[in-house]
Write a structure and sequence with these properties.
By secondary structure, this protein is an all-beta fold. The chain is about 0% helix and about 50% strand. The chain contains no helices and eleven strands. The strands form two sheets. Strands 2, 4, 5, 6, 9, 10 and 11 form a seven-stranded mixed sheet that branches. A four-stranded antiparallel sheet has the order 1-3-8-7, with no helix packed on it.
Amino acid sequence: VQLQASGGGSVQAGGSLRLSCAASGSIFFFDLWDMGWYRQAPGKQRELVAAVTGSESTNGSGSTVYAESVKGRVTVSRDNAKKMMDLRMSSLEPEDTAVYYCNIRRMAGPEYWGQGTLVTVSS
């Protein structure tokens, strides 16, 4: 299983970016998988940015959750047919600078991580 994250780059504060995560390999019943974006800034722990549930979730498929720091500025979405997940970010702030990772998981495992894509926001 491979997760390919793309779309990172350098933007000025107030700008926008769209990150994409494409899953490939032996992933069956993709709609069952929970998907999420995490980020890790230098010297900090990895944190959840946004997640969208799969159909195993008790919240139902497509339920979303966002970190408080990004609410209102970020939208996560998934396309099960394409095995992809997007993260649309706007009004970016220097504090959003980090390596962004995509993650997929089943409730009882397994779990996979992408290689990360760097987002740099300058003031």
